[in-house]
Specification:
With 213 residues, the chain is an alpha/beta fold. The chain has 8 helices and 5 strands. The chain has helices at 15-26, 41-46, 48-72, 83-96, 102-117, 132-142, 152-168, 187-197; strands at 4-9, 29-31, 77-80, 124-129, 174-178. The radius of gyration is 17 Å and the shape is globular.
Length: 213
């Protein structure tokens, strides 16, 4: 059975970078979030109410496909963002802020429930907790055109939704990391925390001593 870790966290929390570095260190396969390929994204950041439903359906269907591919993968995998966040964080926040109407939101949640019922959850979800100031700093540093219009209060709302979601998430074990404290030159500290949380996702002895990446 494929060993499967999922990396979760807000926009700019460092998911993709940590996914890439951990996969390089462990020899695992990364599965990155589909962002640039989403044809609704730029329009969404300029008119969230108009584009929220098609944007979220696009992300949900792509994430479902990726999750299925991961479960069939011959090698251990780290996924950049989970299918659960699409519903519990992003779609829920749009609904609570009045940017997705009741009818669309209920249809979306029903679609997610059907998908989630047929998917084996990850072995571990790693949640990168990050304050809004750090998110903004990292978003500005990577300078993606479609992210320049993201308001700080939207990031703060997503942080609230993340905390609500992670507090009730029980489909698999969760490891919460302080994104500001994660050091890419000490990846073995992260791996050791993952190994301590779910020892079965690693080989019986994974050699960490004396090796720093």
């Amino acid at each position: 059975m494929t060993r499967f870790v999922a990396m979760s966290g807000n926009i700019g929390s460092g998911k993709s970078t940590l996914t890439a570095r951990l996969c390089q260190r462990l020899g695992w396969q990364p599965y990155y979030e589909v962002v640039d390929e989403n044809p609704y994204l730029a329009d969404f950041y300029h008119d969230m109410a108009r584009w929220s439903f098609p944007l979220q359906v696009f992300f949900l269907t792509r994430r479902f496909r990726h999750h299925q591919e991961i479960l069939r993968a011959p090698h251990p995998v780290i996924q950049d963002r989970t299918i659960y966040e699409d519903t519990e964080v992003f779609a829920r926040n749009l609904y609570l802020q009045g940017l997705m109407d009741e009818r669309d939101y209920r249809a979306y949640v029903d679609l997610f429930a059907i998908m989630a019922d047929v998917l084996r959850p990850p072995d571990l979800v790693v949640y990168l907790r990050a304050p809004v100031a750090l998110l903004i700093e990292r978003i500005e540093a990577r300078d993606r055109a479609y992210e320049r219009a993201i308001p700080a209060d939207y990031l703060a709302q997503l942080n609230d939704r993340y905390e609500e979601w992670i507090a009730r998430f029980d489909r698999c074990p969760v490891l919460v990391l302080d994104a500001a404290a994660v050091r890419l030159d000490r990846l073995d500290d992260v791996i050791a925390a993952m190994q301590a949380r779910v020892p079965t996702i690693f080989p019986p002895i994974f050699p960490l001593e004396g090796r720093r990446s």
